[in-house]
Amino acid sequence: MHSINDKAVLANGVEIPWLGLGVYKADNEGEVEQAVKTALENGYRSIDTASFYGNEEGVGRAVKESGIPREEIFLTTKVWNDDQGYDNTMKAFEISRRKLGVDVIDLYLIHWPVEGLYKETWRALEDLYKRGFVRAIGVCNFLPHHFEELKNTAEVTPMLNQVEFHPWLTQPELMAYCQENNIQLEAWSPLTRGRKLDDPVLNVIADKYNKTPAQVILRWNVQEKVVTIPKSVTPVRIKENADIFDFELTDEDVRQLYDLNQELRFGPHPDDF
């Protein structure tokens, strides 16, 4: 992976950039628009939003005003917990599509595995996929037992699983499960919301490459074949996060980062959200 243009290939052949911009908590007005425009100007071609974020309209405006052809930008959004179930999901999708101002959404995800609903929600995603309204479908925050339960009714295997993932939460069993089932792993909150960037081990590695701790974590993600979507609304950080393709971590660096694992979550557990 030597360029921001490099992409992962999902199970159905659809390509998704290894690095994208997350826009969680970015204001729907100028803030999210400026963040998306800055990202696109700096080579990003993947933007991850959600109905819950309340900023799909701003993302859509920024994409349209960027002048970049729609087919070059990979858009992800998600169905929120309150909108799950077959009929509600179909309605929620139309609202998201209208707000984004697009005909086709590149990746549509179930935001959380709401017990008693996520199977019907997945059936809706399958229908949207079969009808060509989405190019790929997947889930967020699913653990192996959620996938095993989904197998009982699913016709299409989720193509991607977006989860909290960073050196302090590596979830090896989940990673192995996704690899064995050709489900692409994607990291949300890869930078621990800034809470672990002062870690001594991380900083020693960063100093070795004359990179920031954040850049080291993001490089570790993509080297380990985990798609990553760091969130930022600060132009200098957006640019910095993209500057990870001119160095490569050694096997020892990678091992040291895995050794930081504490199963430490900064977000909810998928069984207790």
From TrEMBL:
SUPFAM superfamilies: NAD(P)-linked oxidoreductase (SSF51430). This is Aldo/keto reductase. It comes from the Bacteria. Keywords: NADP, Oxidoreductase. Signal peptide: none annotated. PROSITE patterns: ALDOKETO_REDUCTASE_1 (PS00798), ALDOKETO_REDUCTASE_2 (PS00062), ALDOKETO_REDUCTASE_3 (PS00063). Belongs to the aldo/keto reductase family. Substrate binds at residue 111. The record marks 78 as: Lowers pKa of active site Tyr.
